Amino acid sequence: MISKHSLKIRLCVMLLFLGFVIHIILGLYTIIQPERRLRVKPRQVAVIEARGRTYHRHVGQVVDMKLRNEYVKRRQVVESFHPHLMARREIFGYHGHQYPNSKHMGYRGISGEPEIVSSTCQNCVLIGTSETVIGSNRGARIDEADCVFRLGLSPVTSFTHDVGSKTTFRILDAKNFQEIMKKPQKFVHGALASRHVFVFDLPNEAEMFSFSRSVKKLTKQHPPILFYRIDRHGEQRSLVSMREAAAQAGYRLPGARPSTLWFTIQVMMDAGCSNSTIYGVPDPKFCKRTTDSYFRSRYWDVYSPTLCNNGNDAGSTTRGTDPSLPSLADRRALLGWMKSRNFTAFDPPWPQLSIHF
After folding, report:
1. Residue 301 burial by CB count (10 A; 0-12/13-18/19+): exposed, middle or buried?
2. Staple 227 to which of 32, 215, 304, 340, CB 3.0 to 4.6 Å?
3. DSSP label at 112?
4. Mean pLDDT of 246-268
5. pTM over 0.90
6. CB neighbours of 276 closer than 8 A, spacing ≥ 6?
7. For residue 125, which of 265, 17, 5 has the smallest C-alpha distance?
């Protein structure tokens, strides 16, 4: 016969063992789903998911930049009057790296640390991709500028008489960058030689790691070349500035995303350009005036589509095919941005501006 005392002991042991098993299961569940560790987070620091051009999911920044700025201000106040609360939140990971320093422009170097554009420019020139620049004979005038900005894979070899030979900044997307890195010497002394190279639209960590590894090998051999990666904060910052500029011209761009042109404009603003000139970028209504244009959208590619086809602008669909081409949304935003700044445009001129060319 088992005594009542022994039954009580066995029951207690079984309950303790059951509690231990439940504790282990809950711990494993927490490890598998780390986003549930912190329980309820404040709304303005919640992690959201976004989809890139390849439809891969990645962690995105908060869409409402006004809300982010208010959060940064509130955090500074709390740091001043309640530093112990901020220390506790940092320990438990409430802030992490989701909200970088407000001084951070959204550029990161090879090491992944935030960087600031190291070049300061006053007189700047932006060279577009359209064939309208061919035959302009402006190469010598372009090379006189303090900084020259080029889009994507636009070369200078064989076109120096019209587009110049100087390249200070080159902005291109990740897809074209990976193609060029198969022959990286082009960035040094080839048709794409540049002093500063900015890459955007890296959708995942694997491509970011590949970017850093391939660039480190090139910079060891050629230290003067500087590479930057535009992170999610920089992309969001460009998106907000593009929509604000488009609103000044009377356009609303709810679903548009920046292409290479607007990322270049953002870099120009950060580089301190005060007097700027554009060549080879048609205005938003160019195809309304010129129904069928024989000009190619890429001056170096004889197989590229024409700028206009039956009144349809080639830039209206470039975001899904080739982001290096100036999109129609970018040019609409550029119109609003140019109206409030010392900016001129040639080849072709922009008749919508009040500036007399």
Report:
1. middle
2. 215
3. S
4. 88
5. no
6. 123, 124, 125, 126, 268, 341, 342, 343, 344
7. 265
